Amino acid sequence: MLPADAKAATRSGPKAQPQGLKQFIVEEAKAAGFDLVAITRPDAIPLAEERLRHYLEKGRHASMAWMAETAERRASPENLWPDVRSVIVLAMNYGPDSNPLEILSKKDKAAISVYAQNRDYHDIIKGKLKGVASRLASRMAGESVKVFVDTAPVMEKPLAEAAGLGWQGKHTNLVSRTHGSWLFLGTIFTTAELEADTREADHCGSCRACLDACPTNAFPAPYQLDARRCISYLTIEHKEPIALEFRKAMGNRIYGCDDCLAICPWNKFAETAREAKLQARDDLKAPDLATFLTLDDSAFRALFSGSPIKRIGRDRFMRNVLIACGNSGQADLSALVERHLDDPAPVVRGAAIWALGELVDAQHFATLQIRYAAQETDADVLTEWRNAGKKQ
User: Fold this and answer.
1) DSSP secondary-structure letter at 146?
2) Interatomic CA distance for residues 53 and 331, integer angstroms
3) Active site residue 150
4) Of 195, 187, 190, 200, residue with least CA distance to 37
5) What are the C-alpha distances in Å from 117 to residues 190, 277, 309, 382?
6) Catalytic, out of 43, 83, 120, 150
7) Judgement on whether residues 15 and 123 belong to the same structural domain of the protein
8) Residue 34 domain-assigned?
9) Is 37 helix (H, G, I), strand (E, B) or coil?
10) Helix %, strand %, coil % for the chain, to 5?
């Protein structure tokens, strides 16, 4: 059974010559706003299955069980759709207009990953892909197309490398010689036999800037990522309390992390996103942490309507914000943080305790502990009280 974001179409119409059809694809993709487009074959990533198996066996997918559940289909495009004969890989630039690393020194501000500072890219790219696929199908007699954007079990990055859009760098993300690390990917599968483009070579050389930049040492080796240590995973996918060993390293990052991307030297060739919906909202470029501390569920949903941030929900988001508050050194945030000691969500209460342990003096913390710890029933929250109390 195909994923929900797969769409198929078979249209009748004049059959184009292969070269003419390829030029048509390029022109349609560029007209739709894609910056790069290339073609590869479904059997062009033979090493993907073994690498995926190794990743899963090591447990590096953390709590993302869906990766193991879809491993067989993910291993090869032909496992997902046996009729596929060509894979068109398209990329859209989402480059920022400033260095994302600059905000990390502004401890009273919230750092949000570049990709999440405006609309959800899934919706934007899916709509554009459908348009290109529909026009392509109208030019191919008896051929079918399906579109996929990220949420389907497709190995977009290896396919993009095979198609020649870039290469998977040592941080495991795609790197382009023309756009650096700031690219969203989507694919169009088709039954048509199209001329494949040439694979891109690896241009990382001896550089290890991305590996050295990681604040949590999430790369056990070049070209390998352990999601269990990755701040992007911890702030977005991880639902439980964040382990103590990672909290200080998170700094003011409240949603995602761009360190390994932003430090890449190839970004000197990157450009600012042309798509307006991918350009950062002014209120999410460098928002005050205090702005988010008063959000209830309805206010959170309203603020992040149409944003990928909305997907993680208010409780997980507030957990991240509170940890950033604890790292801020801003004692004036403590009054707002205290309001979350009786929050309905245990994960929020626990983060508030840790943050206050970093922000207030021992006497004030002891007063709060006497007031709140006696009535606490959640085991994780009680552990937070004990740990923070020992520190005080």
Assistant:
1) E
2) 47
3) yes
4) 187
5) 33, 9, 9, 35
6) 150
7) yes
8) yes
9) strand
10) 50, 10, 40
* Same domain membership, residue 182 and residue 47: yes
Strands 253-255 and 111-112: parallel
- The residue among 190, 209, 231 that closes a domain is 190
φ/ψ of 5, rounded to 5, equals -90, 15
Residue at 32: amino acid letter: A
Q: Residue 318's closest CA among 288, 295, 341, 287?
A: 295
Note whether 260 and 213 are within 8 A (CB): yes
Residues 159 and 292 reside in one and the same domain: no
Closest CA to 139 of 67, 188, 91: 188
Q: What is the token pair recorded at 107?
A: 């401890």
Of 146, 161, 190, the residue that ends a domain is 190
Full pLDDT tens readout for the chain, 392 residues: 334 344 444 444 444 445 689 999 999 999 999 999 999 999 999 999 999 999 999 999 999 999 999 999 999 999 999 999 999 999 999 999 999 999 999 999 999 999 999 999 999 999 999 999 999 999 988 899 999 998 789 999 999 999 999 999 999 999 999 999 999 999 999 999 999 999 999 999 999 999 999 999 999 999 999 999 999 999 999 999 999 999 999 999 999 999 999 999 999 989 999 999 999 999 999 999 999 999 999 999 999 999 999 999 999 999 999 999 999 999 999 999 999 999 999 999 999 999 999 999 999 999 999 999 999 999 999 999 999 977 77
Enter the pTM of the model: 0.93
Residue 388 tokens read as: 């923070």
Would 223 be classed as within a structural domain?
no
- In total, how many domains does the chain have? 2
H-helix or E-strand spanning residue 301: helix 297-303
Length, in residues, of the chain: 392
In the numeric block, which tokens belong to residue 330?
Answer: 């801003």
132-158 b/e with 16+ CB inside 10 Å = b? bbebbbebbeebbbbbbbeebbbbbbb
The verdict on residue 308 lying in a domain is yes
- Rounded to 5 degrees, what are φ and ψ at 154? -125, 135
